[in-house]
What does this fold into?
Amino acid sequence: MGDTGRRSSPEQCPRQEPSVMSPLPPPSPARRLALYALTVCLLAVAAAVVSFARGSWLGIVWVLLAGLTSNMTWYYLKRAQASADRGGSVTG
It folds into this structure.
């Protein structure tokens, strides 16, 4: 049907050099959850603004969700910081 973009043999696949890879370690699970919660918080604030601008009282729900996710962001940031201070990683 056409070219799918796949390579047929492993010899054709380019290997990524270690020097090309990102020098930063992957974020800890708690830091990643904090970033997700912050993203949801920002989206909830934007949804609340749009909702109130249109005259809908549904924006109250978005404000409550923004408050909840804001607290989650702080919790997971503090948890990641405490884990880094201990020298371990957070699992769970």
